[in-house]
UniProtKB/TrEMBL annotation:
Annotated EC: 6.1.1.2
Function: Catalyzes the attachment of tryptophan to tRNA(Trp).
Gene: trpS
Reaction equations catalysed: tRNA(Trp) + L-tryptophan + ATP = L-tryptophyl-tRNA(Trp) + AMP + diphosphate + H(+)
Organism: Metallosphaera cuprina (strain Ar-4)
Gene Ontology terms describing biological process: tryptophanyl-tRNA aminoacylation
Location within or outside the cell: Cytoplasm
Descriptive protein name: Tryptophan--tRNA ligase
Oxidoreductase recorded as keyword: no
Family: Belongs to the class-I aminoacyl-tRNA synthetase family.
Main subcellular localisation: cytoplasm
Single GO MF annotation: ATP binding
InterPro entries: aa-tRNA-synth_Ic, Rossmann-like_a/b/a_fold, Trp-tRNA-ligase, Tryptophan-tRNA-ligase_arc
Keywords, in A-Z order: Aminoacyl-tRNA synthetase, ATP-binding, Cytoplasm, Ligase, Nucleotide-binding, Protein biosynthesis
Motif 'HIGH' region mapped to chain: 81-89
Length: 380
């Protein structure tokens, strides 16, 4: 039976059934046992793991097993730059920076200014390259280690990626790529070749690669896993997240192209308050009397979902909010106010870090330690 939702790298529609998606995509659920194994390896669990926001994986169990035996891995994630990142985009970066802190491993971050340009008729290359520079500041602000992180833009780093890219491209047929991404014969040839460029960084080291990302990126990794071993590399491991829902309702994912559905990292206090108060979809009852009597439906309430996903890390506090709001003790206006304050304090801190990041860009890009080590490896 056709599902009433769909998840692709470019679009998420409907209310996603994440358990079904695991079966559909052929990934594995992150089990209690796996969470315990991770906790025993690093001493604690990120709230996004405790709350199953990162809910699915491939080979993460192998990564942990090998780690225990003394074998390391590297992390890889990425971003197709746009005019202004929103809060949902921070999820994989905040989580990847946490993993880096816990394991002390290298992180590679691909900025696909080429992908964004080729996929959208209306964007010029100058624009996507400019957005890349801007988005990199937000990414650095997530808290990466400059000595162990390399951020690169495809249009700048291509010379070093190209030899691997063509080896990958030679292994992929048009019909596989077409079927995996739903392309057709009218697709431009750049976008047909592009998957090889998103696969390249999974082969930057001869160790296992772990990719934290939204589950929408999964089709790339399916192709990678088909061909990696034949090129002498490991199949990439992944840890997948759910999508922060749009402000306007529990379906789909927050998207830059619908401004009222998103909170941008540059939104000021007043804008955040206005958007949350005006647009945040509520699971509360239409009147105070009914809310006191019946309470809110947390499953569809966006302010609650956002606190649960990202903004309220304290388990006791989120539990209390859930109890009070679902029983009617707390009103919609109150939970929205809690969210506004949480978002604004996150954004204040983020903007401070973003300003500090301006002086660090070159250390994360081509003059950093990891970039230089890559250069030596490529040219040895
Ligand atoms: P992009 O720029 O669409 O998205 C960047 C990352 O953000 C995740 N994401 C979300 N996560 C939670 N809630 C949301 N509402 C939300 N919206 C987006 C995405 O899943 C992704 O992890 N082709 C890629 C760029 C890329 C990449 C990679 C991504 C290149 N190499 C390696 C991940 C890993 C893209 O368009 O991402």
């Amino acid at each position: 039976m056709a599902e009433n939702y769909s998840v692709t790298p470019w679009e998420v529609k409907g209310k996603v059934d994440y358990d079904k998606l695991i079966v559909q995509f052929g990934t594995q659920k992150i089990t209690d046992q796996l969470r315990r194994d991770l906790q025993s390896a690093v001493g604690e669990l990120h709230p996004m793991l405790r709350r199953e926001i990162f809910f699915s994986h491939r080979d993460f169990d192998i990564i942990l097993k090998e780690w225990k035996e003394g074998r390391s891995f590297f992390l890889y994630t990425g971003r197709a730059p746009s005019l202004g990142m929103h809060i949902g985009h921070m999820i994989p970066f905040v989580f990847t920076a946490w993993l880096q802190k816990k394991f002390g491993v290298n992180v590679y971050i691909e900025i696909t200014d080429d992908e964004k340009f080729m996929r959208n008729l209306e964007y010029s290359l100058d624009q996507t390259r400019q957005w890349a520079l801007d988005n990199i500041l937000d990414i650095i602000a997530a808290g990466f280690d400059p000595d162990k992180t390399f951020i690169f833009q495809d249009t700048e780093y291509i010379r070093n990626m190209y030899p691997l890219a063509i080896k990958i491209a030679k292994k992929l047929t048009f019909s596989e790529v077409k079927a995996t991404f739903g392309l057709d014969v009218s697709s431009n040839i750049g976008i047909i070749f592009y998957p090889s460029l998103q696969i390249v960084p999974t082969m930057f080291e001869k160790r296992r690669c772990l990719i934290p990302a939204g589950i929408d990126q999964d089709p790339y990794w399916r192709l990678q896993r088909d061909i990696a071993e034949s090129l002498g590399y490991y199949k990439a491991a992944q840890i997948h997240s759910k999508f922060l829902p749009p402000l306007t309702g529990p379906e789909g994912k927050m998207s830059s192209s619908v401004p009222e559905s998103a909170i941008y990292l540059i939104d000021d206090h007043k804008t955040v308050e206005r958007k949350v108060m005006k647009y945040a979809f509520s699971g509360g009852q239409p009147t105070v009397e009914l809310q006191r009597k019946l309470g809110a439906n947390l499953d569809v309430d966006v302010p609650y979902q956002w606190l649960y996903y990202f903004f309220e890390e304290d388990d006791q506090k989120i539990k209390r909010i859930a109890e009070e709001y679902s029983s009617g003790k707390m009103l919609t206006g109150e939970i929205k106010q809690i969210l506004v304050e949480k978002i604004n304090s996150f954004l204040d801190l983020h903007r401070e870090r973003r300003e500090r990041a301006r002086d660090m860009v070159k250390d994360f890009k081509y003059e950093g330690r990891l970039a230089r080590a890559m250069w030596e490896k490529i040219h040895e």
